[in-house]
Predict the 3D structure of the following.
Amino acid sequence: MSNATTTRAQTGQSAQDAARTAGQKAQDFTQSAGQKAQDAANTAGQKAQEFAHAAGQKAQDFAHAAGQKVQEVASAATQRVQDAASTVGHKAEDATASVGRGLESAADKVREKLPHEGMLGRASEAVANTLDRTGHYIEERNIRGIANDVTEVIRRNPIPAVLVAVGLGFLLGRTLRR
């Protein structure tokens, strides 16, 4: 073999060795980056899980407090409606229409005063929507059967009932502070 052929063979071998070394380094780097990405994903997953648990606990506490407010407000509203119905029939219909308008007004205040974004924004919008629907319902219905309907609605829809309680509790709290 000639010197030129030997040099080419050595150069080819050196190139192959360099390519293998570069390939191995690239593979090592890829594995290292993959492990770091997996570690970061695990850490993020754990943080998200902790956040979700804390948020769930706060939402549960919030719902429990709101549920108690719903019961208090529903009980007070039911008693007022029953008293009005027993004393004056047609005035009771006027009073319920007024309560309906008041709930619609309360929905507008909730929309104005509470946040519009995030979890609290979604909750406040749900409260406002529930107040609107309840106001329309009270305006359109006669006094007869509202107490039974309220009980049935709370049984069928506990979450919206809780949100109504939160909204009414908020408004009642603001009213009592003044």
Notes: The radius of gyration is 34 Å.
